[in-house]
């Protein structure tokens, strides 16, 4: 009998979003000897979205490599007062000092940082050894060896197949790896749409540059926050009829979109946003009317039910991040949860090696934790979308504190040669 062919990789990660890159980082921190590769279909480039990194996600990053947190916090825009405005631009309230969410977090020993999705992705990508991240490589499907000892990965575009011991599907809300594992179809439409963009800070900005401004109330709101480089990010939400879901990309839209190829599409997105916000105050209109249409993203809000996300993997394959536990954005936890996934995956591989046992150990720790957040985010979104105008903005920080999510603090990943290993 011919001797078995050596495998190309120990761990292959599909998807170079925050989850996939962090997974590679965590695995290589704990086991630098493993051959790990990340396959990303796009190139790393700015996209119109910002993320709130919260205490649990920051702690997970620190466990992988404290210099990641230094890099992240160097981008901290030092958020200041929270201004709440009515749609006509009049002030409802101002939360500052002890009342502000960031002070609430600080008092509990936590940190947070608003960062653009692209800058977080770049920070993680830069932390990987050269040659780990492969851009513009689109995964197509996998094939498991009959004895479960390896996976053959097939790619689009005629790239030759590769073999790997483990496969991690970190390919986001429309995960192809998930579909091949479970075939459970596209995510559920949550009944609302969001528009997001990053753009220069407008003239009307409050005099404190770190101000966070929220206009309106559930279910029709626009929130805008500063970024460290003087730009701002905004995101707007509105209930949107299911009958019109195809106009906003349908159920197959990805949460994090590439800049648009066509200006007309951007203009159509702007028009739909103005359908909702066109008679709001000049500040809100200036954001929508002033944005470069190519920087404007639009997506139906999608999620999966916690009941449908009890199982994440099989044999040498598992899921991580949005592919495993897609939630609504109500708790701003998607990326933070993906960081937690990554660190636990790294720990499991440190303990069990690149084996299916490591994947089952990772899933056993993370699935119940992620489920709590997913369940709450769905519950909050249902209340959000059916709220009467004037309903107070959900206190995301209080909800997360009550769920105990911020209490999870991660010990440094064991490193070969360290006493913790
Ligand atoms: C309006 C809104 C606001 C949000 N705000 C926050 C927030 O403040 N804080 C927070 O923590 N989270 C937030 N989120 C959630 C966050 O964006 C996601 O949870 C996060 O991006 C998930 O990371 P991921 O790596 O799992 O997936 P993704 O970021 O979706 O990355 C998946 C990657 O896989 C790649 N890919 C897909 N298919 C293939 C393939 N076949 N081959 C190769 N590559 C492939 C994609 O190109 C992509 O780069 C928000 C989401 C929305 C919609």
Automatic annotation (TrEMBL):
Residues 9-375 form the FAD-binding domain. The keyword Oxidoreductase applies. InterPro entries: FAD-bd (IPR002938), FAD-dep_Monooxygenase_BioMet (IPR050493), FAD/NAD-bd_sf (IPR036188). The keyword Oxidoreductase applies. One of its GO terms (molecular function) is FAD binding. Signal peptide: none annotated. Keywords: Monooxygenase, Oxidoreductase. Pfam families: FAD_binding_3. PANTHER family: MONOOXYGENASE, PUTATIVE (AFU_ORTHOLOGUE AFUA_6G14510)-RELATED. This is FAD-binding monooxygenase. It comes from Chlorella sorokiniana (Freshwater green alga). The lineage of its organism: Eukaryota, Viridiplantae, Chlorophyta, core chlorophytes, Trebouxiophyceae.
